[in-house]
Design brief:
This protein is α+β, with helices and mostly antiparallel strands. The protein has 3 domains: about 130 residues, Hypothetical protein, domain 2 (Endonuclease III, domain 1, Orthogonal Bundle); about 70 residues, Endonuclease Iii, domain 2, CATH 1.10.1670.10; about 120 residues, Nucleoside Triphosphate Pyrophosphohydrolase, CATH 3.90.79. It contains 15 helices and 8 strands. Strands 1, 2, 3, 4, 5, 6, 7 and 8 form an 8-stranded mixed β-sheet that branches. The protein starts with a helix and ends in a 5-residue tail after the last helix. The relative contact order is 0.09. The structure holds iron/sulfur cluster. Iron/sulfur cluster (SF4) binds next to helix 9 and helix 12. Iron/sulfur cluster binds next to helix 9 and helix 12.
């Protein structure tokens, strides 16, 4: 049996047959189900789908409905752009297609919110057209079964997967096969070849599956490449006097929100001028310390520590929102990890204090 035949047979025996949007040729109902199923699980979609069809049983009723009402009905399903696009597309079908859902897959794809795979699925289930689908589940099945490396969202890999999807379609001759085959791909991806813990022992493709044979199921599809994190740089001032160090309270939001921290200064600033302007403190530089690298979720931070000895307070010296603390007390305060890493060696260095 070839790929399509195996899947068709599996779908007939083990696939899903009683979902509310199956066994209908109504393009409106098929379209609604395909849009709702994007990014949403079947179990969540079912009650929304039934309620939606009850309120708006056809394209005309949806096109005439106020958008606020449509979105209220969509409420809780998430990704509200889907609801807005659905409403706009219904109005376009009325104004541009005389209220008839277009049959041609290229025309379907012109409607808002409908991509190539969704247009193909609608054309298959509503009209029995011979079109290939390639949603996220299908990409996973193909990548594993044919050992296709590369992140599926990347252009070249996606082109390869589309080519595969076209190649594997069942022959046109047998009526009804394209619908069963398309449903089989969807069912296999959703219930057997799942993202985690796929049920390979229950899979009709197991004997030919490259990922299974090569024990690479957990490596395919190739995950999205992680972008290198942007690097930022900043200066933290170590202002020292009489064995104490100046700490500032960070604003409640942003990095280190609400923690006590060393005063932060932009990289381009002159430290002496900055200290005079900000705190009314006259300072002298102490021996430089090496930079310290710290990683956040979205960026890396290179910290340039500037140890400075306070030699005089001007009459206008002010430390609003800042406190002088002994090293031991500073280390016991709510301070971020990099500040702790900077203070620890200084605490042990009697010369600095
Ligand atoms: Fe997916 Fe496993 Fe089937 Fe391969 S054998 S297609 S990895 S479920």
């Amino acid at each position: 049996m070839n790929f399509a035949a195996k899947l068709i047979r599996w779908q007939q025996l083990h696939g899903r047959h009683n979902l509310p949007w199956q066994n209908t040729r109504d393009p409106y109902a098929v379209w609604l189900s395909e849009i709702m199923l994007q990014q949403t699980q079947v179990a969540t979609v079912v009650p929304y789908y039934l309620r939606f069809l009850q309120c708006y049983p056809d394209i005309d009723s949806l096109a005439l409905a106020p958008l606020d009402e449509v979105l209220a009905l969509w409420s809780g399903l998430g990704y509200y752009a889907r609801g807005r696009n659905l409403h706009q597309a219904a109005q376009m079908i009325v104004s541009q297609h005389g209220g008839e859902f277009p049959r041609d897959v290229a025309a379907i794809q012109q409607l808002p919110g409908i991509g190539r795979s969704t247009a193909a699925a609608i054309a298959v289930f509503a009209y029995g057209e011979h079109c290939a689908i390639l949603d996220g589940n299908v990409k996973r099945v193909f990548a594993r079964c044919f050992g296709i490396d590369g992140y599926p969202g990347e252009k070249n890999t996606e082109t390869l997967l589309w080519h595969k999807a076209e190649q594997l379609l069942p022959k046109k001759e047998t009526k009804g096969e394209i619908e069963t085959y398309t449903q089989a791909l969807m069912d296999l991806g959703a219930t057997v070849c799942t993202r985690s813990k796929p049920q390979c022992t229950a899979c009709p493709l197991q004997t030919d599956c490259i990922a299974f044979k090569e024990r690479r199921v957990d490596q395919l599809p190739t995950p999205k490449p992680r972008k290198p994190l942007p690097q930022k740089e900043t200066v933290l001032l170590l202002l020292l006097q009489h064995g104490e160090i100046l700490l500032e309270k960070r604003p409640p939001t942003g990095i280190w929100g609400g923690l006590w921290c060393l005063p932060e200064m932009p990289l381009a600033e002159n430290a002496a001028a900055y200290c005079m302007r900000q705190f009314g403190l006259k300072v002298q530089p102490l021996p430089e310390l090496p930079p310290l690298d710290h990683s956040f979720t979205h960026f890396k931070l290179r910290i340039h520590p500037r140890p400075l000895q306070v030699v005089a307070h001007t009459p206008a010296a002010r430390q609003n929102g800042a406190i002088w603390l002994a090293f031991e007390d500073a280390l016991g305060a709510a301070i971020p990890t990099p500040v702790r890493r900077l203070l620890l060696p200084l605490n042990n260095n009697k010369n600095v204090k």
